Amino acid sequence: MPAKKITPAPKPATPTADGRLLPPKDGAVIRMYRIGHGDCFLLAFDGKTAGKPVYVLIDCGFKPGSSGKIERTPALGAKDVAADIFKATGGTVDIAVVTHEHQDHVNGFTKTHFSKLKIRQTWFAWTEDPDNPVANALRKKFKDQLLGMLQARNRLAADGNSAEVRWMDQFLAFELGGESETFDPASAARILAADSDASGSANKKSMKLLRDLASEGPRYLKPHGAPIPLSGARNARAFVLGPPSEEKKILDVDPIGIEEFHAFGAAHAMSIDAGDSVVVRSPFHPALGLPLDSAANDPDLGHFFRDRYGVPTASGALPALPKNLSEIATNEASRRIDGEWLQSALQIAIERNNATNNTSLVLAFELGKGGKVLLFAADAQRGNWISWKDGTWKDGDQTVTAKDLLGRTVVYKVGHHGSHNATLNGKATDPHPNLGWMAQGSSAREFTALITAVRSWALEQDGWNHPLPAIKTALLEKCAGRVLQTDTRLEDTPAIRTDPAFAKRTRGTPLYFDLRIDA
User: How far apart are CA 331 and CA 240, in angstroms?
Assistant: First the structure.
């Protein structure tokens, strides 16, 4: 009986002497840049020509201020990321992907950082196609909403509503972009008045730069077309899952019923002691509440509590409401509805922000026909997710479904930094696409999640709970600890200590994580 042939384990993908990033044979390597609270990925696929990988760059952006919250020395930022991309690719990227027009996905793409990079093609979602009438109507509608948001923001500022203004500034910064931590309403007004991308928002300038750099021009992708072979790659191709073609689904952003991951599970509720403070026992995120003993003196909202509930007693408790309403201090302004329409602007801002997220270009990269899948969901939310099953992909005489692609997924780029509405909950038997559909059979043994979040920075914002603890917990369980997060050192990733195979396939530096995917 002949001796069994033993195939040596492939070596980890590491930079060559000149810094080039080379993937294993028939495989790929994902470089996840620790740019901050935002997305930037470099994918290297094995090429048909030895030593010539096919490089795909997906997004490059961050929320200003978030990079400095990552514990590392020295401080690193978009300039360092761009320099590494140039070195790792030898200065040429085959495909640059812009998933959607948000600051934390595109503001790293500046002339200063990327003007010398050569790009063959740039991929956008169909919603960016200037020749698509539906896309043009959507963009006009979104721009009109932004103008309304800016008007409401300025009225809120004039009325002294500083808390609401901070919220509006956050959402407007998402839509308009830039690297500054300070929102400038005057500049925003000039930007929204501009008719061209060249004089428009920082986001639009970044997207124009990538269009201009693409030697073969831009490509606008629709879901459920034929698989797209990556030119020059040995065996890699891309399937387009989203965004949906229907505006109704683009505007559908919140999970329903079993699709939702709840902020607090039963185990958490049972662990709360009855003597815990109200902040600990609250079902809401801490950033959405105020401690009782300081509510009346809060610089932004204290007037609300003082005018309606009085000043706290010596014990810190607020007095009971008076039985006779005439006892409440006169405050005609609080009884008028002149400015009530301004409060609805906050909800409009949230919905506008989510709609942009739902235009995310969602790509599934496949390594060989019927092989492993790398799923990059950008910031897709409910309507985008649900639409993945609305069509199929013709592959010769075969038909590929979304459930098949998700079942073969071994890497999931977690949607929207782990936000509550960007990963759908569910089981493998549920009819809607969800986390339970992913990593079936042998794919479960190496399923890995990538979360682009800086939690300490997110918790300082108004109401951001990234990643949602319930989603992070579910991912850690499904991935058996193979979860890489921007602000977490590789050595602190649970699976590094428990999964030797995973440890051999990963590499970490203060600037990035590398994850090797073998064929």
Answer: 56
β-pair partners for 53: none
Tally DSSP H helices, then E strands, for the chain: 19, 17
- Nearest Cα neighbor of 364 from 227, 478, 516, 234 is 227
In angstroms, the CA 360 to CA 106 distance is: 13
* Pairing status of strand 398-400 against strand 409-413: unpaired
Helix (H, G, I), strand (E, B) or coil at 185: helix
Can you give the residue ranges of every domain in the chain? 266-344
Q: Helices 162-176 and 133-158 meet at what angle, rounded to 10?
A: 150
Long-range (24+ apart) CB contacts under 8 A made by 71-80 are 71/487, 71/489, 72/34, 72/510, 73/510, 74/510, 76/34, 76/510, 76/511, 77/35, 77/36, 78/35, 78/107, 78/108, 78/110, 78/113, 78/179, 79/112, 79/113, 80/511
Long-range contact list for 286-293, CB < 8 A, 24+ apart?
A: 286/459, 287/459, 287/460, 287/461, 287/462, 287/463, 287/464, 287/465, 288/462, 288/463, 292/316, 292/317, 292/318
Rounded to whole angstroms, the Cα distance separating 326 from 137 reads 52
Residue 283's pLDDT is 44
Question: Do 450 and 402 touch, CB atoms closer than 8 A?
Answer: no
CB 120 within 8 A of CB 215: yes
**How confident is the model over 12-30, as pLDDT tens digits?**
455 666 789 999 999 999 9
User: Read out DSSP for 130-154?
Assistant: TT-HHHHHHHHHHHHHHHHHHHHHH
**∠ CA 162-417-106, rounded to 5°:** 80
**Residue given tokens 């302004």 in the structure block:** 333
Name residue 378's amino acid. A
* Cβ-contact 98, 40 below 8 angstroms: no
**For 294-328, how does the pLDDT look when each residue is reduced to its tens digit (9 = 90+)?**
777 777 777 776 666 565 555 545 455 444 444 44
pTM for the structure as a whole:
0.83
Which strands, in side-by-side order, build the sheet including 92-97? 218-221, 118-125, 92-97, 54-60, 40-45, 28-33, 512-517, 506-508
